[in-house]
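SEVERITY: medium
COMPONENT: batch folding queue
REPORTER: lab tech (J.R.)

DESCRIPTION
The queue accepted two submissions in a row. Attaching both inputs and their returned structure tokens so the on-call engineer can compare them side by side.

ATTACHMENT 1
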Amino acid sequence: MKKVISILLTVVLLLSLAACRQTSPSTSEQAPTSSSSSTSDATTPAANGEKVTITIEAVAAGYGQVISDYCDQAFLDDLGVELVFTYSGTVDSYSKQMMELSQGTSTYDIVLFEPAWIGDYGPHLEDLSALSEKVGANLYLDDIMPTYKDIYTSYHGVQVAIPFDGDQFNLFYNTQAFSDEENQAAFLEEYGYELAPPTTWDQYAEMALFFNGRDWDHDGQPEYGTSEAWLSGGYAYWWFMARFAAYGGMYFDKDMNPLINSENGIAALNNMLKTVNATPPGTTSAGYTECEAAFCNGDVPMCICWNSVGKTAMNANSSLITPNVGIALVPGAEVNGQFVQRPTLPTGWVAGIPKYISAEKKELALKVIEKFSSPDVALDAALYHPACVDAWRISTFESQDWANRWTDDGAPALGQQMIDTMKATVEMGFADMQIPGTDEYIQALDKEISAALIGQKTAEQALNDAAQEWNAITERRGFDTQKEAWNEQYKAIQNSGVDYIPFT
């Protein structure tokens, strides 16, 4: 019976998470928010009330739905705007937008993109602070969590984007599995310390192996140890980086030498390899939805994934484990005798305005961004919207309504724990690389990590090969340009309190 219910819940998850971490190309489609037709000259409203069309590349339908839900018809009518959305998927979205932007053109008036691409997008985006002052808009910049504001939305010190989705990794665990006396006794006997949510990656690997193949929930069926998503094409990279950051790693040194094949990187990938046999079958081809479903269906006692998993797990309509849900910081590691904890902030989405559209469209596009990024909308979307939109404003993290939200789903004690954990993650978070060609670097490393995960290469071989390809990318892109861009980001990372810790 459990398996039947599990299948049904998985279907629900697949239907409800259309906006979440989409890495495969999808068919582009246009979806106007109203039936009014656009004119051949959309930049100038006609005397008969025809509207200006604002086209948004929203990546996935769920994100477009968030914008259209909060930019209601009354608002659009008052503004004299019709919204048209295109949904290209992450891969196609990047390539299509960059093809146009690099030529000094843009089909889109608003673009949603990953912060990792800001090194490519930044030169082509409008200064939103200057535009806001001109238009009289309020983007509430002081209400953005500093890490998102200072690193994820700035290019050469210029505010070129506004957050849309505050992504981060968290550790979710099944409280029933960890509090079970039989599990506790067995773990203590085998490993010599108390069973509790892991604080280090070594503990995490040991607990994953302990739970794997064990009937830890006493339903008569053996389960797996943990859930991650290692789909080749970008996902494996993020789970490696979650470990690499904790092991004191950094992308490059100041001279642009890759550090991914350092002892830090090798230790991180070897830890990842320890959990290969403790995950459900198909993990090397699993994405966000599969990772989340394994946890919510009760197939694993732990899950490291994006923070929106918490929303789903604590909703009895989409989860078998409500209210047995706990949340903790992603594990840290012992480096040179000190404990290092650097949770990662993978992806997240931001909104920008291309330079290459008319002045009128820039102003109208900013008004649309002002609306869907407002503090009230950011809070409501984090609370209630079915799309995977997470907190990124200070006011959201400070909202008692957000804490109380989890009470509705039967977990009153978890609300503040959720907020404290997520806020701490952002404050100490390890940022994505954000230099020109970041996507090339990610794909090159991801390919080699995937080779190690399926046993084709050792950790050291894979990372040495990845470092060699990183050097080749740097040379193709222009060494001096890449070095300058990296050192600017490296300084911002250091200013956030994070630095490279070499093994000694």
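ATTACHMENT 2
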Amino acid sequence: MSLRARVWIVLLTAAALILGCAWALRSGYLTVVDTAEHVANTLQPASDTVADLDFALAEMRAGATVYALTGNVKDLATYVDANTRAQNAFRKLDEYLAGDEELSALLRKTRVDTAIWRREGMQPVIEATRSGDQATATELVSSGQPRQMYYTARSSLHQLNQELRDNVDDAVARQTDEFVWLWRVLNISILLLLVLMAAIAVLLIRSVLRPLRDLGRQLVVTTAAENHEIPIVPSGPPEVRQVGADAEGMRRQLVAEIDRARQADEGLEQHTPVLAAIRAELGESHAPFIPQLDVAGVQQPAEGVMAGDWWSAQEIANGCLALVVTDVSGHGPQAGIEALRLKHVVELSLAQHGDPGLAMAAAASGFRDASRFATCAVVVLNPATGMVHWANAGHHPPWIMNGDVTVELVSTGPLLSILGGEWSTQQTQLEPGAALVMWTDGLTESSDDQRTELGDDGLRALVTAALGAEDTSAGVVAHILAAARARAVDWRRDDVTLVVAQRQ
């Protein structure tokens, strides 16, 4: 067999094998992308919608219960508004889960249980209250039957949410397996390329042997590198240089494919159980019951990323209530970890000392990431006297609003960072009927379709309207968030946190 024929056989065989590997890489990459798109466009939005539905059901229950106790139609309006949001959430879930029979079945069960609770549990209470039979309404609420129906509906909803989380975990596992397979195909592709170069080196004349050996050494180095980022620089005659250029182009293409796959994987990492646990820890906070204070707060995480917003409410010495709102810079797992560390440090300091300024100093001493900073506002309320002590580390000044008068709790020291600093504790008064409002910039920086941010003035107008329309802090929070969400086109682009405390 002639040398020319052998060269052609080697070239055609190697080309077929490399094309097969390239096709396999492309198929694997498309599978990874499809999985990532399914999580991003279906599973995660569905999970977020389930959370919205859960919140709406809780508001429905609260609105109907308070309406039965007070007979105030404003509380009934809360129930009606929450019911509308719940139905909208059901319609969205119908769209997201249309292609999944198992999840659709769980959704149908949740809808049936919710309808039973609304029809047989809440509606008799509402009808009795409307007819003026408040005794019957109160008896129905106290009977426990509506509560049991509500928990049945929530149990179905939580089962649906768990299935969604399991599907996300399964998608992550499938994508991990796909990445392992892609890595193996990549190694086979590089190995085939080396075999091709070796065959050509054997068949070529001695005058080009040295350039080919040089090219082979470069390929070995590139293959041994973990990130395959070392470029190939060909030398020698045109034929050899062309082969080297082709190898460099293939290396770049393969590196680009791997980079895109890694980016998709990084997006999926936001949904792993560990990060979900961090997110849950930062998002879960409930105010203790204090008769003289009505406190409510909500933290809504941004879509697709992990940021560092959190709030907390804890009862400390002398019956005082400590409220904290913090915003850590940046996004991703590290921001969440830093936020969780700060939360534990601040809450421990407040429990031990009860002084906002000392809590700030403790938080700064606990900072570990030199690339990050945080803003933080700490407010300690004495419900008996109305005395307010606060410290502010560069956070948006919380407001004390009493009619037309607004007092801003301005900064008392620098931002929280590894550089440390000093923070003084200031004091003011929260009169009966006044409200304390705390928030993060995800709320005020939300923009409408004209790219106009809500801003401080817009938020102040929403707070004023909500205080005039709602009787509870929970109602005020829900009113403000609903109005802000209605005007925004980029809602939940960033974490949104809002806390309202009213003195009775």
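NOTES FROM REPORTER
The mean pLDDT is 84.
No errors were logged for either attachment.
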